[in-house]
Amino acid sequence: MARPAGVQATKTNRGNAGVITSRENRWLKRFRGALSGACDDDGIVGVEGVRQVEAALGSNLRVDAVLVSDSGARHLPRVAHRLADGVAVFRTSDKLFSSVADTQTPQGIAALVRPRRVSIEEMCRGTALVVALVGVQDPGNVGTIIRAAEAFGATGAAACAADGTGTADPFSPKALRSSAGSALRLPIARGVSAAALLAQLQRAGIKVYAAVAVPSGHGIKNQSLENASPPCLPWEIDWKRSAAILIGNEGSGLPDEIVSAADARVFIPQAAASAPVGIESLNAAMAASVLLYEAMRQRNGARRANP
């Protein structure tokens, strides 16, 4: 089979390999698109940096190719034991690698990865703990929430849209970096509306908690919520049962119709402000981390009590 234009043959201990010498090489174009956050028809995403590539190779996901620059080749021994047979390994110059990299100071190693397609049903098996991101637009927040979800034992995450506001792609370059590889390991469902997700979770017997920024009806436009029961405090919830946490948009929070459709609301209390202008509410990623930690604390306590 003829080699693509701009690729010279070489030998490696693992996988097939070539040296890319042209900006027009089709593999280099694929890396350029994937590392810029553009998904192709196959849903391939790009990861960059030695830790991200190591996480991808150790995630049981399909890795189509690895690209290293002349200076980045020093990282190959670190990941070589994880390279499956048949993974294409390409080398290129530092200049050509910089032309496709998303970071300002690239480490000279990147990979093309195919994330898993995950259904809500998969995340609901057993004693589920699901975090749903509803209109969380900052990729950094998305990645941090996913990182916390994996660290605190969540069974999955969902990126949802509501009221025309979508959630940032968990596999975008910034979100992937913020997740520190968790997005490649934690089951993540995408492309579902918040209303459809909530209905699926409730059908599966999972209690859904809407995270709110205020302890009562204050600031809620929907009059039907003003007379509702006050939100629970995090430690008042039995997290040992299957549960889902809804985290809303950084500025506007969760839509009222989603809050009213949830089984209950949860509120994180804060210390009284000492300054004239205090913190209005916790950052979306911080709030998710606090709630996920409380869930893990209770679940670990239950395991210790019932070895």
Describe the structure.
31% of the residues lie in helices and 21% in strands. The chain is α/β, with parallel strands linked by helices and 307 residues long. The protein has a 6-stranded mixed sheet. A 6-stranded parallel sheet has the order 9-8-7-11-10-12, with helices on both faces. The longest helix is centred in the C-terminal third of the chain and has 22 residues. It is elongated.
Provide a concise account of the structure shown:
This protein has two domains: 7-114, 60s Ribosomal Protein L30, Chain: A; 120-305, SPOUT methyltransferase, trefoil knot domain (Alpha/beta knot, 3-Layer(aba) Sandwich). It has eleven helices and twelve strands.
**Protein structure class:** alpha/beta
CATH topology of the largest domain: Alpha/beta knot
Low-confidence runs of at least 5 consecutive residues: 1-5, 9-15
H/E topology pattern: EEHEHEHEHEHEHEHEHEHEHEH
Largest beta-sheet characterization: 6 strands, mixed
Proportion of beta-strand residues:
15-25%
- Quick one: how many beta strands? 12
Number of helices: 11
Count of folded domains: 2
General shape: elongated
Share of helical residues? 25-40%
Output the CATH homologous superfamily of the largest domain: SPOUT methyltransferase, trefoil knot domain
Q: What CATH architecture label of the largest domain applies?
A: 3-Layer(aba) Sandwich
Q: How is the largest sheet built, in terms of strand order?
A: 1-2-5-4-6-3
Assigned CATH class of the largest domain: Alpha Beta
Distance between the termini: 58 Å
Average pLDDT taken over every residue: 86
Gyration radius, in Å: 22 Å
